[in-house]
Amino acid sequence: MNPITHNAIIKKASLTIEDHGCLTAWITLDYGGSGQGFGGYNLCSTGPNADYRFNYAGKFIVRVLQVAGREKWEDLPGASIRVKSSSTDQIVAIGHLLADDWFLPGDDLKLKEEAPEENTDGEDIDHAEYSMRPDR
Question: Is residue 113 a part of any domain in this protein?
Fold first, then answer.
């Protein structure tokens, strides 16, 4: 089913380390009579065994700022954006109000599997690379 697009104003923005040790970011959206939160992704684990190879936090924060047309997280409240939601009202993307610039966390924050490389010993090396599209 095609996503539904809404206009929204960001009312609140927060960065939090949850009680279970995960860095999360939230923006609270006002649709003019109703609202919804966007975020809650585990952007970074903060425990003693945290793996910092993949900078999900940086990607999430940068893309939210870009689509909102802001340079500082604390300047997000008051920004107008577009929101695409599924038929079950789950937000699947946020976008710039005027430009065709969309942030789809479900796609943009995935790991992409690369073809195995061959090292100098002739053995295959499997690795995952952080997925950053050049157009984002």
Answer: yes
Domain assignment present for residue 33? The answer is yes
Full domain range(s) for residue 35: 4-130
The DSSP code sequence of the chain is -PPEEEEEEEEEEEEEE-TTSEEEEEEEEE-SS-EEEEE----EE-STT---SS-HHHHHHHHHHHHHT-SSGGG-TT-EEEEEE-TTS-EEEEEESSSS-EE-HHHHTSEEEPPPEE-TTS-EE--EEE---TT-
Counted domains in the chain: 1
In this prediction the pTM is: 0.68
In a domain, 42, yes or no: yes
Identify the band that residue 112 occupies on the pLDDT scale cut at 50, 70 and 90.
Answer: very low
